[in-house]
Amino acid sequence: MSMDSLITVENLYRYYGELCAVHDLCFEVRRGEVLGFLGPNGAGKSTTMRIIGGNLAPSAGRVLINGVDILDQPVLAKAELGFLPETPPLYRDLTVNEYLVYCARINRIPRSQQRAAIDSAKERCGLTEVGRRLIANLSKGYQQRVGIAQAIIHSPSVVLLDEPTVGLDPIQIREIRALIRDVANEHSVVLSTHILPEVQSVCDRVQIINRGRLVLNESIEQMREKLQATTLLIALRSMPSISELESVAGVASVELVEDGRVRIGYGAESDPSDAIVEQAVANGWGLHELTPERMTLEQVFVDITSSDAHAHGESGKHGGKGEAA
C-alpha cells in the first residue's frame, strides 16, 4: 500500500446468494485525487461504494481507509469518511444551520470546534447566505450543496459522492463540479456517476467496472491520449479511386461512408490532413470537407463494457436483483 493511499481495496468480493456482484476488485485512491467510478447498471458499482462506505460487509477481501481496516476498526475508519448518497440524507423540516449542527454532533466534533466546522462547511459549499432557510425551501442544487456540506463537515480524508449532479440544471451542475474540485484540494474524492462529461471535467483518474470486475483503470491524461482523433471524414466533389487515396502519405485505411463521404484511418502520429489537402488541390478532387473524428469517453465506455459482456457470453443482460447495481 502506498503511503499516499487513502483508500485501498484488496481482493474484494461480494455475493448475493449465488450472484457474484463484486469479483476480486483491487484499486487505490491517493491523497488529493478525484476518482471517477463508472459502470453500467448492475455492474457492482453501488455495491462497491456501499462496502467502501462501511454500509455493507464484503464476502471476502478488505478495505482500508487511511490505513485503517473498515471491518476491524469501523468507528476509526468511518471517522475518516464523508458520504453523499444519490438521495442526500437531509431533514427537510430543519434549517441549514440546524441540520449542520446535528451533523457536527453525530460526527463527534468537539463542542468547542463545532461552530468553526459548520462555518467552514457553509463557506466552502456556498451556503453562508441560506443558513436560516428551511432545507425544504431550497432548490435542488442548494440541497445538493447541503448534502456535500454534511459529508465534509468533519474534515474526512475520503469523500464518497454518488451521482451528485443528478437532476440539476446546467448552471447548478457547473457549480457542483467546481465545488467537487475544491473539495479535492483537501480530501480524496470518489465520484460515482453516469454523466461521462463530468468525469472528463473533474476527475484525475477513471475506473470502469463491469460484471463486478475492474475493466479499465487509467488517468485522465491516458484517456485523453486514447481519445485523440485517428480518423478523418472527407468529402470530395470528384472522387478518386480508393487506391489513390490509400497512396497518400500517412493514410492507413479508406472506407466509403453511406452519405458519399470517405473515412480515412491513420496512425496516432501520422496525421495525413496536410497531404490530403495537397493532393486534392494538385489533382482537382474538390475537397470541401475534412473533419477529424474524435473518440468520446462514451464510446470507450460502450466498447469496453460491450466487449466484456460479449467475452462472457452475455448480450447486455445482467442477472440478479438491484442489490448488485
How would you briefly describe this protein structure?
Helix content is 34%, strand content 27%. With 325 residues, the chain is an alpha/beta fold.
Question: How are the SSEs ordered, and which strands pair?
Answer:
Layout: E1 5-16, E2 19-30, E3 34-38, H1 45-52, E4 60-65, E5 68-69, H2 74-78, E6 81-84, H3 96-106, H4 111-124, H5 140-152, E7 158-162, H6 170-183, E8 188-192, H7 196-202, E9 205-210, E10 213-219, H8 220-226, E11 231-236, H9 242-246, E12 251-256, E13 262-266, H10 273-283, E14 287-293, H11 297-311
Parallel strand pairs: 3-8, 3-9, 6-7, 7-8
Antiparallel strand pairs: 1-2, 1-4, 4-5, 9-10, 11-13, 11-14, 12-13
Helix pairs in contact: 3-4, 4-5, 5-6
Provide a descriptive summary of the structure in words.
This protein has 325 residues and is of the alpha/beta class. The protein has two domains: 5-218, Rossmann fold; 228-293, Alpha-Beta Plaits. The chain is 34% helix and 27% strand. The chain has eleven helices and 14 strands. The chain has helices at residues 45-52, 74-78, 96-106, 111-124, 140-152, 170-183, 196-202, 220-226, 242-246, 273-283, 297-311; strands spanning 5-16, 19-30, 34-38, 60-65, 68-69, 81-84, 158-162, 188-192, 205-210, 213-219, 231-236, 251-256, 262-266, 287-293. The strands form three sheets. The chain has a six-stranded mixed sheet, sandwiched between helices. It has a four-stranded antiparallel sheet with strand order 2-1-4-5. The chain has a four-stranded antiparallel sheet with strand order 12-13-11-14. β9 (205-210) and β10 form a beta hairpin. It is elongated.
